[in-house]
Amino acid sequence: MAQSTLDSMPGASTGTVVVTEPLNFWGGKRVKPRQEKNAEPVFEPATGRVLCQMVPCGAEEVDEAIQSAYAAYQKWSKMAGMERARVMLEAARIIRERREKIAKLEVINNGKSIIEALVDIDIAWQSIEYYAGLAGTLAGQHIQLPGGAFAYTRREPLGVCVGIGAWNYPFQIASLKSAPALACGNAMVYKPSPMTPVTAVILAEIYKEAGVPDGLFCVVQGGAETGSLLCHHPKVAKVSFTGSVPTGKKVMEMSAKSVKQVTLELGGKSPLIIFKDCELENAVKGALMANFLTQGQVCCNGTRVFVQREIMPQFLEEVVKRTKAIPVGDPLLESTRMGALISKPQLEKVLGFVSQAKKEGARVLCGGDPFVPSDPKLKGGYFMSPCVLDNCRDDMTCVKEEIFGPVMSVLPFDTEEEVIKRANNTTFGLASGVFTRDISRAHRVAENLEAGTCFINNYNISPVEVPFGGYKMSGFGRENGQVTIEYYSQLKTVVVEMGDVESLF
Ligand SMILES: NC(=O)c1ccc[n+]([C@@H]2O[C@H](COP(=O)([O-])OP(=O)(O)OC[C@H]3O[C@@H](n4cnc5c(N)ncnc54)[C@H](O)[C@@H]3O)[C@@H](O)[C@H]2O)c1
Ligand SMILES: C[N+](C)(C)CCCC=O
């Protein structure tokens, strides 16, 4: 079964794939949905054609998946870290071996370019490999106490963790959440976005093939209702959520009812600050990387580009020239650099932001229109031309709200003090960036920006070894890096008396 969806991939082209296999996975196998009458069509963004049906899981199915994960957790958590590592390394190897096929399926479901999807799949296996490396290192402390007594700590798993993902990095988010969870000895029940249901189940099959106990990584399909069943389930110890701020708040509220641990990876409106002493070509390239990956549908994008006034004309000329040259079109072609947005409503929402920006006084320097590729099969796709907005002010909607599309807002500034104040004037705090040749300024700015990440002289690179997560309303907890072990484990203290009990009673 694992191979059936992927087997059609090598020769697959845009507009040809239909996925018919069940998309749920628990108890070690794909599971047919029970309530077919609730099926929702899932669209291929590049064509607007129906790719598959997503049937949301109800309470019984969610419970079955969680019970199956719990049974697997009891076996997996008793294995040595080194044993878990061996299985995880095998899963990473299989992903690496099938990277092209998985990337193709991701493109067909998500609309991003194949060149980006391949990187996403590489980050996925790297994450599993990285946490496999840490699995054997989990250890506690030994603490000496008076009279020969001592204490020690044990790093223990939490139990069944739930992962809830967004649609912009479907396979990668499922991997980034499950890798540290499994390394620590937990099981995971994962719910992908209802818009991108097809690749998480491939990950589940690969874990199974690699040798995890049946049920260790389960996939349940669905939207808000299924997500809420997961957050309320009494056997769930933790919820790791990636998505928007409003949904993140709901997840936190629901999890609070039974005091579940929560990690929230939420949205952003990140500032990218370009000083006049920067290396301009790199700064322009950085601004493009900060705005146009995955059609601009990236949480940590640097969508408020602050440019020091003296270099604004040169910056705009170069950034517009390069933006106009971005090849938009069939995401499965290697030459394409921008594919289709996730859905028609998302495309309309983003175009609406551009119209609103114009009404509020912004000037469109390029793009911002629906784009119809010449290839007839792409006529129904959700494409738009990447957009650069000039004449922006801090009070404009396009500067304040997360657009989640290929729209860069450019703002002038004069001094470092002023720009830091303006950059921090947001409820979000996911990422930030600074371009300058002045090393002291770079670190001073990084220190003063209220964001979970600051990129110096680059943007949107996130190796798996480096922690990633938000400040302020962009969330809390971290993904990637060693620190994430702490978010998927708990510390038990064992206190050992070696003498007699000195009782006060
Ligand atoms: N910080 C990060 O790492 C990161 C990464 C990717 C996306 N995002 C953010 O995600 C957003 C876009 O993704 P989206 O549109 O899928 O977000 P969303 O909040 O609409 O949905 C995210 C997930 O939550 C589920 N969900 C919806 N309502 C729920 C409920 N009541 N209870 C439980 N689950 C529920 C959805 O089905 C989906 O799986 C943007 O704001 C973006 O910035 C953040
Ligand atoms: C890999 N990137 C580009 C840093 C994206 C992280 C996930 C946010 O949407």
TrEMBL record:
Q: Which UniProt keywords apply?
A: Cytoplasm, NAD, Oxidoreductase
Any coiled-coil regions, as ranges: none
Tell me what organism the protein belongs to: Maylandia zebra (zebra mbuna)
Q: Could you state a single Gene Ontology molecular function term? A: 4-trimethylammoniobutyraldehyde dehydrogenase activity
What positions does the domain Aldehyde dehydrogenase occupy?
38-494
Transport in keyword set: no
The residues annotated as the active site are E265
The reaction(s) catalysed by this protein are: an aldehyde + NAD(+) + H2O = a carboxylate + NADH + 2 H(+); 4-(trimethylamino)butanal + NAD(+) + H2O = 4-(trimethylamino)butanoate + NADH + 2 H(+)
Family listed: Belongs to the aldehyde dehydrogenase family.
Q: What is its main location?
A: cytoplasm
PROSITE patterns hit by this protein: ALDEHYDE_DEHYDR_CYS, ALDEHYDE_DEHYDR_GLU
Where would you find this protein in the cell? Cytoplasm, Cytosol
- What is any one of the record's Gene Ontology cellular component terms? cytosol
Q: What name does this protein carry? A: Aldehyde dehydrogenase 9 family member A1
Do you know which PANTHER family this protein is assigned to?
Answer: ALDEHYDE DEHYDROGENASE-RELATED (PTHR11699)
Its UniProt pathway annotation is: Amine and polyamine biosynthesis; carnitine biosynthesis
